[in-house]
Amino acid sequence: MSCIQIKGGRPFRGEVLIQGSKNAALPIMAACVLVPGVTVLQNCPDISDVDCMCQILRCVGVEIRRQEDVLFLDASCITSHCLPEEYVTRMRSSVILTGAMLGRCREISLYYPGGCVIGDRPIDLHLRALEKLGACFAANGRSLTATAPALTGSRIRLPFPSVGATENVILAAVAAKGTTYVDGCATEPEIVALCEFLKGAGAKIGGIGSGSLVIEGTKRLSESCYRVEPDRIVAGTYLLGTLAAGGDVFLRGAPQSQMESVLEVSRRMGAELVLQKEGIRVVRTGELAGVGSIRTGVYPGFPTDLQSPMLVALCRATGESRLTETIFNGRLAVAAELNRMGAGIRVEGSDAYLSGPRQLTGCSVTARELRGGAALVLAGACARGMTKIENRQFIDRGYEDIVRDLQSLGVDIGDKTGF
Ligand code: EPZ
After folding, report:
1. Pocket mutation for ligand 1, best pick of 21, 127, 132, 162 (most atoms within 8 Å of C-beta)
2. Which one of 8, 159, 171, 409 has the minimum C-beta count within 10 Å?
3. Ligand 1 atom, smallest distance to 164 CA
C-alpha cells in the first residue's frame, strides 16, 4: 500500500496546471461505445478511474491506446455485452455504460456498481428512466441484466437531478427511435460536456445546460475528436487548500465559469481572487473568516465533491461555521479523521459545526474515499509537524498526482510505497 507524508506549515506558493475533468471524461468514454469507429479524447486525465473504465471498455471489445494526454478509443466492434465484475464493482460510474451498451447492442450484463463509501448509492432512478425508453432489467443477486429489444423515445421526468441517471438517459435516448423529452435533468458542467461531445459526433440534442433536454434519436454517430475540459473539483480542491494554508497560487486552466459558488464563498472568507483568461490567481495572506452557514447542493450550488476540502478551510477560519451536506449521507465521515488532527468538527446528522481557527497537528490518518482523502492531504499541509496518510490509492482515483501538484506549490510532501 502506498502512503503520503507531509511536513506541514508552509503557505502554498506557485502555479499548478489543472488536469482534465474526471467526471467529464468518464461519461464521454462510455459514450464512445455508441460510435462505430475511433473517438479521440484530448486532455484525458491519467487517473485510476479512467484506467478502470479503459479495462471495462476493453472487455466489451473497444480498442484503446493512450498517447500522453490523448486517448484513442476504437469501438468499431463490440464483441461482448458482459462487463467484468472486478472493475465494475470498483467504480460507481461503470453504471453509465448501461445506457451506452443498450444504445449500441441492446443488452448488457453488469454488477451493482461499487464506488466511494460516501453514502447510499442506489441506481433506481437510472433503471426507472431507462425502462421508460424500453429497457427491461433482471436482477440476480449482485448482477443485473438489461435488454432493450427496441429503444423508443419517451417523455421522462427525473424525480431528482441525478448526474448519473441523466447521463444514462442521454446515452440511451441518442440511440432510440424518435424523440425523448427529459425534465428534471442534472445541469452539472459534465452533463453539458457529454452533450457537446455527442453533438460533435452527430447527435441532435436541444436544451443543453438546462434541466429539460430534447434528444432526437440518431441512426449513427460518427468519429470525432473532443478536448476534455479542466477539472473544476481539482481546481476547487487546490483553491480551498490555499485558503486553509495561506499563500499565493495560480490555478492554470481553472474553469472559473463553472466555479461560481466556490469563488463566491472564498471571497466571503477573505480570499483575494484575480480571474484571468488563463486561470485563477488566489491569494490569502490575512485572516480567514468563517462563513456562518453553507450547504452543498446540485449545480450550480456548492459542490458536494468540495465539502470535505471545505471542512479543512473552515476549521482554519476565525469564527463559527456550519456546513450542511445535502447530497450524500455518508460524506461527513472524514470529520473523524480530521478531528484526530485537532479540527474540532462536531457532526450532527448532515450538519458539521466548526469553530476556528484551529491549529492542526500532524499524525497518521487513513483515507477511505477520494475527496475525503484529498481533504486529509490539505489538512496535513496546514498541520504542525508530520502527517502520514494511508491508502493513497483512493486519492489517485481522481487526482493525477496530488503529490506532484502540491510540490509545485512548495509543500513539503512525498510518497512512500511498501507500507
Ligand atoms: C456524480 O455521481 C459524480 N460522479 C460524483 O462525484 C458527484 O458527487 C455526484 O455526481 C453529485 O454531483 C461521477 O460523475 C463519476 P448522483 P452520481 O446520481 O452520478 C441519489 C467524485 O468525488 N441517487 O447525482 O453517482 C444518490 O444516492 C464523485 O468525483 C438515487 O437515490 O451522483 C445521491 O444521494 C463522488 N438514486 C444523489 O442521488 C439513483 O438512481 C446524487 O447522486 C441515483 C442517485
Report:
1. 162
2. 159
3. 19
Query: Rounded to 5 degrees, what are φ and ψ at 285?
Result: -115, -35
Q: Is residue 411 pLDDT above 90, yes or no?
A: yes
Q: Which atom, in ligand 1's list, is nearest to the CA of 115?
A: 35
Task: Kindly state if the Cβ of 341 falls inside 6 Å of ligand 1.
Answer: no
Say yes or no: do domains 3-18+230-418 and 22-227 share a fold: yes
Return d(Cα 418, Cα 2) in angstroms, integer. 6
Which CATH fold would you assign to the domain 3-18+230-418?
A: UDP-n-acetylglucosamine1-carboxyvinyl-transferase; Chain (3.65.10)
Mutation test residue for ligand 1: of 22, 127, 163, the one with most atoms within 8 Å of CB: 163
What Cα–Cα distance (Å) separates residue 15 from each residue in 8, 208, 368, 384?
A: 19, 33, 28, 24
Gap between the terminal Cα atoms of the chain: 5
What atom of ligand 1 comes closest to residue 49's alpha carbon?
15
Whether residue 340 has its Cβ less than 6 Å from ligand 1: no
Q: Please give the number of the atom of ligand 1 that sits closest to the Cα of 116.
A: 35
pLDDT mean across residues, the chain: 95
Q: What is the DSSP string of 265-307?
A: HHHHTT-EEEEETTEEEEEE-SPPBP-EEEEB-STTSB-GGGH
Grid cell for residue 414: 512525498
Q: Is 399 in the pocket of ligand 1 (CB under 6 A)?
A: no
3-class DSSP state for residue 258?
helix
> What are 209-265's pLDDT values in tens digits?
999 999 999 989 999 999 999 999 999 999 999 999 999 999 999 999 999 999 999
Q: Which of 116, 195, 315, 382 is catalytic?
A: 116
What class, spelled out in words, does domain 22-227 have in CATH?
alpha beta
Using one digit for the tens of pLDDT, what is the confidence trace for 164-177?
999 999 999 999 99
In sequence order, the β-bridge partners of residue 145 are: 109, 138
SS3 232: helix
- Is 116 a catalytic site residue? yes
* Strand partners for 340: none
